[in-house]
Write a structure and sequence with these properties.
By secondary structure, the protein is an alpha/beta fold. Among the domains are: 199 residues, 3-Layer(aba) Sandwich (Rossmann fold), CATH 3.40.50.720; 42 residues, no CATH class. It has 14 helices and 15 strands. It has a 9-stranded mixed sheet, with helices on both faces. A two-stranded parallel ribbon has the order 7-10. It has a two-stranded parallel sheet with strand order 8-13. Strand 2, helix 4 and strand 3 form a beta-alpha-beta unit. The longest helix is centred in the middle third of the chain and has 21 residues. It is globular and about 55 Å long. The protein starts with 7 loop residues before the first helix and ends with a helix. 46% of the residues are buried.
């Protein structure tokens, strides 16, 4: 059973949210739109939604040629007249990015490309910083230099009081986006939660474990996460792009957090039939939390929410002056080039003092 075909409103205990995307159409119709990470679950679904708004051109960028081709094939079947460009490339390749902006001139950027797997990034925090933080800052700078109108960055709730290299890298990227930049480019960072039906969620893993007869492994009995279906997640990104969404950090309102154990039991009931599939509780992995937060202890909600359904809320988040952000990124870049975990930790903590590195992160070779 495909991960996207479940009755997620039933699991979440609420009807599917109705998010107003009409203003997004006004922002996207007739414009050149770049989507990074276009081969991933979110990027691919977002590409299909954007294509329906008749952009002047849709530019797809992904490091996986196979995934990029799959997204392109889906678009070709549904939107025969769509002008699109597929670019196979690494988001860290700055010369490629500059050439892409010079030749295609994207006016709207959805930046969804990222490394997201917590355990592997705890072992390689340099990759997390290069791909998720440094590349995001450079991409935003290049977009502003080429007069892009809007830049929507896909962040994560793991950036709130981060315990992982993933969360810290996304928080560092948020700082780059929150720093005052050229007034002509609107900058929005959207802190997404766990996306049900995406390839990066725990759902595909649980389904594989159920098909094998179990056990379904969960890191902690009390582990709770915020969840949103893929369709709602994409609608939120479109809402963030719309006029009036406000610049800065935007956070969805997904309802109450749900235990991961409840998700496992839901999937077992939906797919296992009469078979009894056991659940095994293991241990929190390095970088994991028992419970995620939408905002940190240093942040607060401000003003009202955007959209008729109050789908996104603006967050007042600590920022740094532009010179300090530049210096921070300089220190992170130097630590990555030197492969110095000690210098990297010092740099991260200077910009994100709420970061609580895992024992693994602290004990990696200096």
């Amino acid at each position: 059973m495909p991960a996207g075909s479940f009755d997620w409103p039933r699991f979440l205990g609420r009807p599917a949210a109705s998010i107003d995307c009409e203003r997004a159409e006004e922002a996207l119709a007739g414009r050149s739109v770049l989507i990074t990470g276009a081969g991933g679950s979110i990027g691919s679904a977002l590409s299909l939604r954007v294509a329906a708004f008749a952009p002047r051109e849709l530019i797809l960028l992904d490091a996986s040629s196979k995934k990029l081709r799959k997204t392109g094939d889906r678009l070709a079947r549904r939107f025969q007249r769509l002008r699109r460009t597929a670019s196979h490339g690494d988001i860290c390749d700055l010369s490629m990015l500059r050439q892409l902006f010079r030749s295609r001139r994207p006016e709207v950027v959805f930046h969804a490309a990222a490394l997201k797997y917590v355990p592997s990034l705890e072992r390689n925090p340099f990759a997390a910083m290069r791909n998720n933080a440094l590349a995001t800052a450079e991409l935003a700078k290049i977009a502003a230099e080429h007069r892009a109108e809007r830049f929507v960055f896909v962040s994560t709730d793991k950036a709130a009081d981060p315990h992982s290299a993933l969360g810290a890298s996304k928080r560092i990227a948020e700082l780059a986006l929150l720093t005052e930049g050229p007034a002509a480019m609107r900058r929005r960072a959207v802190r997404l939660v766990n996306v049900l039906g995406s390839s990066g969620s725990v759902v595909p893993l649980f389904l594989r474990q159920i098909r094998r007869g179990g056990p379904v492994t969960i890191t902690h009995r009390q582990a709770r996460r915020y969840f949103l279906p893929l369709e709602e997640t994409v609608a939120l990104l479109l809402e963030a792009c719309a006029e009036g969404a406000g610049d800065g950090l935007l956070v969805p309102q997904p309802g109450r957090p749900v235990t991961v154990a409840r998700l496992a039991r839901f999937l077992i009931r939906q797919t296992a039939g009469p078979r009894a599939v056991p659940i095994a509780f293991t241990a929190l992995r390095p970088g994991d939390k028992v419970r995620e937060s939408l905002i940190s202890r240093r942040e607060r909600y401000c003003g009202g929410a955007s959209g008729r359904e109050r789908s996104l809320r603006r967050v007042k988040s600590p920022t740094l002056p532009a010179p300090e952000v530049d210096a921070l990124f300089g220190r992170i870049g130097e630590a990555c080039r030197a492969g110095s975990r000690k210098r990297l930790l010092e740099a991260i903590l200077s910009g994100v003092p709420e970061y609580r590195p895992s024992r693994l992160m602290r004990n990696l070779p200096a």
